[in-house]
């Protein structure tokens, strides 16, 4: 049995599309769980209950995604969990591809492939295109070289028995879960056919908020688990490869701007984590332009 868990927060405009994108990819014996702290999202999701008999709604206490996932996992029935979000939607046959790879008992989790829905003709849209393509390239390369890769929180499958209880306050649940899977002695597979469509930030302010939350989250995991998953040094390696995605002078300029922005981003992360000692409530901010 498969349990699809969709975590959401104030996403009434997108949650139905998220639900419907997965509902026709699973059987009636499987289940879809919507977990959200706000009634607007739950009410909008609930409008599909008459159409989908396997849809369940759970209200969490608004303590963050980690707490919401802990609550949802404690109530699901599936042996395999598919985790995604209420502000993204899943491509056709994506779940089938995830589950197919889980037939190998050595595989503990399988990551999907995020694809940007932003307009590439704008700088931030171009950045989202480049960064998602780089992530796809690195995951494929890791598989070829038999190195570790990490799941994307936008879409991945995991065996329920391997799903850890998450510490409240985590900024990067996907990184924490991925490392736990490896520690349990399992592999993580990549399914580039399992596409999940994501709207990325369209303002620089929101871009900083989102990237600080994700990249800073790996810094947080380093302190919690005493392992470095992601750093400025690891991000910088192979940076010149970014230029292969530029097809004109304007896009070359945007690549240079991306370099400078990433340096600025990591400076902020270092300041907030090591000097200001900001808590999760201060570091986690809602990214409005992605909704």
Account of the protein in words:
This protein is an alpha/beta fold and 291 residues long. It contains ten helices and eight strands. The chain has helices at residues 15-23, 39-46, 65-73, 94-101, 123-144, 173-183, 204-225, 232-236, 249-274, 280-283; strands spanning 2-7, 31-36, 55-59, 80-85, 89-90, 107-116, 155-159, 187-198. An eight-stranded mixed sheet has the order 3-2-1-4-7-6-8-5, sandwiched between helices.
Relevant terms:
single chain; 291 residues; alpha/beta; 10 helices; globular
Spatial arrangement of strands, main beta sheet: 3-2-1-4-7-6-8-5
Largest sheet: 8 strands, mixed
Poorly predicted runs of 5 or more residues: none
Arithmetic mean pLDDT? 87
Q: If you compute it from the alpha carbons, what radius of gyration comes out, rounded to the nearest whole angstrom?
A: 18 Å
How large is the count of helical segments?
10
Give the percentage of residues in beta strands.
15-25%
**Secondary structure category:** alpha/beta
Label the overall shape: globular
What is the percent of helical residues?
A: 40-55%
Calculate the terminal CA-CA distance, rounded to whole Å.
31 Å
Return the string of H and E elements: EHEHEHEEHEHEHEHHHH
Count of DSSP strands: 8
């Amino acid at each position: 049995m498969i349990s699809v868990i969709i975590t959401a927060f104030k996403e009434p405009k997108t949650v139905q599309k998220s639900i419907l994108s997965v509902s026709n990819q699973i059987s009636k014996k499987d289940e879809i769980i919507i977990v959200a702290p706000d009634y607007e999202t739950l009410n909008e999701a609930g409008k599909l209950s008459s159409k989908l008999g396997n849809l369940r709604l759970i209200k969490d206490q608004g303590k963050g995604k980690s707490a919401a996932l802990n609550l949802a996992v404690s109530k699901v029935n599936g042996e395999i969990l598919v985790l995604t979000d209420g502000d993204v939607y899943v491509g056709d046959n994506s779940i089938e591809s995830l589950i197919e790879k889980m037939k190998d008992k050595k595989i503990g989790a399988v990551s999907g492939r995020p694809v940007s829905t932003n307009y590439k003709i704008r700088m931030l849209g171009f950045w989202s295109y480049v960064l998602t393509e780089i992530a796809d390239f690195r995951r494929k390369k890791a598989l070829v070289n038999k190195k570790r890769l990490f799941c994307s929180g936008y879409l991945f499958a995991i065996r329920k028995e391997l799903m850890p209880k998450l510490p409240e306050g985590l900024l990067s649940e996907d990184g924490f879960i991925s490392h736990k899977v490896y520690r349990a002695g399992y592999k993580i597979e990549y399914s580039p056919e399992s596409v999940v469509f994501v709207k990325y930030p369209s303002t620089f302010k929101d871009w900083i908020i989102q990237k600080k939350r994700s990249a800073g989250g790996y810094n947080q995991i380093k302190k919690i688990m005493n392992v470095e998953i992601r750093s400025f040094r690891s991000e910088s390696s192979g940076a010149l490869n970014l230029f292969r995605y530029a097809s004109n002078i304007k896009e070359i300029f945007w690549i240079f701007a991306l370099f400078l922005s990433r340096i600025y981003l990591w400076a902020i992360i270092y300041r907030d984590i090591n000097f200001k000692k900001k808590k999760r409530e201060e570091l986690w901010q809602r990214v409005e332009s992605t909704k």
